[in-house]
Fold this sequence. Notes:
The structure holds 2 protein chains of 2 kinds. Chain A is of the alpha/beta class. Chain A has helices at 42-51, 61-68, 107-115, 127-135, and strands at residues 4-11, 56-60, 86-89, 101-104, 121-124, 141-147, 149-150, 165-174, 180-186.
Amino acid sequence: MRKIIVLSFITLDGVVQAPGGPEEDTLGGFKYGGWSAPYFDDVVDKVMEKQMKPADLLLGRKTFEIFASYWPEHADFWPGINDVTKYVMSRTMQKSDWKNSVFLKSLADIEKLKESKGSDIQVHGSGELIQLLLKNDLVDELWLKIHPLTLGQGKKLFDKGTIPAAFALTESLVSPTGVIVANYKRAGKVKTGTIGA
Amino acid sequence: MISLDGVLQAPGGPEEDTAEGFQYGGWSAPYGDEVGLKATKKKMKPADLLLGRKTFGIWASFWPEHADLWPGINDVTKYVLSETMEESDWKNSVFLESLADIKKLKNSEGSDIQVWGSSKLVQLLLKNDLVDELWLKIFPLLLGQGKKLFDNGTIPAAFTLTESLVTPTGVIFANYKRAGKVKKGTIGA
């Protein structure tokens, strides 16, 4: 079985839309594209370098299109990105010029992929796809970079698909600009109790 | 206390706040440990409180008899924002009626003012940029339902992380203070 790992830059209020630049995703009239850039320091850079080691990717259609128009020409910044398999969940798209792109049509396809042999599978961006994964409890790990700001608008990581689920914090680190790097893995059901009881 | 998806409803126990049929009351309890307790106690130093009506109601029925767990809680002033409530048996309770009252309070002399729980009030404060610091405890779970800390009132705002700590059970304590407007850029540019 392959693990599905969701990597996200996220604000304190859970927004994940367009962290990297103003043009990345302006859907819904989003005006704060590029909000993560001022916090990008050596520590975040190093963590990203470590986490972006070659692994197959699972992407939503929109994120795939953004990636496909950028990464083929910039693979020196993400070694191996052209060689790994890009699994794309899309009802409409069936092919791409970007090599090693494979198109999936349904949740069943994702489940089959997860059961197959191979590297862990990373999910970047892909807000809608993540809702589907969360809703069906297919996320094994969350690798978050929690940025010190609120936006009050934009696509959220934990939206309609979120189900009650406990996690264990496996790694954490604070960058000089105040980004909290926190990796979580799934850890069963939510438990409750009474404080002080 | 918030979950990874920003829920703050009823962290302490099943009966704390069951509004909207919330079934996960007491979700923070399994993560209690020595480190968390110590950090929380440090924050519970006597300071005046600003509370919403519901949180005040829960507190007024508990703390007067349990002040040994929170020294000074009966002596500090409890400012309560409520359109309906005007008095309470809990000593040093003061009732506020409007945003203007809160602004006046903020501009007055005295201790810093702590807000606990009070999700609706927090929305009002965030919306009007009246929050100077956020002292968050981020718990390692998702709930997918319940009242949220950052809801309709949230505005774009930058913060600075001033203090952070991770407990053995995986709770992240993170203190932030307001730091001007949101800035943008392009990664790698």
